[in-house]
Sequence to fold (260 residues):
Amino acid sequence: MPDIRENMLNLAALGRRQDGRGLEDYREPISVEVGISRSAEGSALVKIGKTVVMAGVKLAVDKPYPDTPNEGSMMINVELLPLSNPKYESGPPSIKAVELARVIDRGIREAKAIDTKKLCIVPGEKCWMVIIDLISINDDGNLYDAAGLAAMAALDNAVFPKLKEGNIPDYKEKSNIPIPLTKNILPVTVFKVGQYLFVDPNQEEEEGYDGRLSVAVAADGNIAALQKGGEDTFTLEEIETMVDLAVQKAKFLREKLKSI
Fold:
């Protein structure tokens, strides 16, 4: 979409965007609501502007992987609903859904944000599997940050169901034992158009960017993971600037979690 990109470049030269924001400004309002699902062990609804993402956490008892017999595991599924954007279709996960799941998964996994050893029930036999389902309700751009915020809020909201005889979960009774989180990890995606960097694109801006870098940031400012997207390349200086901006904006988003 050359017209969109050209318009973005012209406005970026003035430090502005088509909706009046600065290059480093998020859309408002930003809201995080937890406990929205009665059937999930944890859940959250996140809104960034008109982008809306729902996250649900289910806890299932499974057998540990052979190479980690004393640990539980985690899985992330992403469903991009056609009702959220006419570009999406029902059926197997699209490339975008797979990439979105990978960005969120990598940040949580590489940061070791969940103490997987505490998910072990019987070594080599039974463990908890943490399943995070992310669903787009309305996609008006920047699903990456919205989904990351929703996943962390849902994990923080989740509690284990009680175990019955034989280590069978009773999903009708909750134990009030939270998931063993060790870190608060949030992804911030920084986008590039021409020589300019910006955050939180709306749907139209997502059609005109050149490249992006998703940065998973812990509460202490440490970087857990990086994932590049788009066709453009980055210089080392650009990467350093993008990471610094992501760390700054992760602090901003983390305040939204504290306000729950």
Notes: The mean pLDDT is 95. The helical segments are 2-12, 95-110, 143-157, 236-258. Residues 236-258 form the longest helix (23 residues).
